[in-house]
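To whoever is on call:

I kicked off a structure prediction for a single chain this morning and the downstream step that reads the tokens threw a length-mismatch warning. I double-checked the sequence; it's 125 residues and nothing unusual in it as far as I can see. Pasting both halves so you can look.
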Amino acid sequence: MGSVWHLLPLMMLSGVLPLSVMADEPTFPRARGERCVEPVGVMRRAHFEFLNHHGQQTVERGIRTGRHSLAGCIGCHAVRDQHSDWVPVSAPGQFCDSCHTYAAVRIDCFSCHRAVPEADRVMGN
């Protein structure tokens, strides 16, 4: 009987995990907006596709919209600490980090992009 560990990345993408490797679902601060630009299930499965497509449209064609922009996501999902300073969404336990750690996915978005909101992109202050 072979191990299923080599299938783990595929199982994670499809949403099927053996009970022996399932962990508690990630927890993170609540977003400030009324609702996300897409249903939660869609965002969990395809947010990276939206971000990649939006990035390509911006870089290659100069098309800038807010619907699937990384800045828009950060503007809604970043929180402030007890000193009213922004906590990066990539910090441990924060929005992006929490899910990506849970899914064992390494991202490099924030090597170029801001992990805290720009003043004019903040939702629901």
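Update from on-call: the warning came from a stale cache, not from the record. Cleared it. Sanity check on the structure: The chain has one domain: 31-121.
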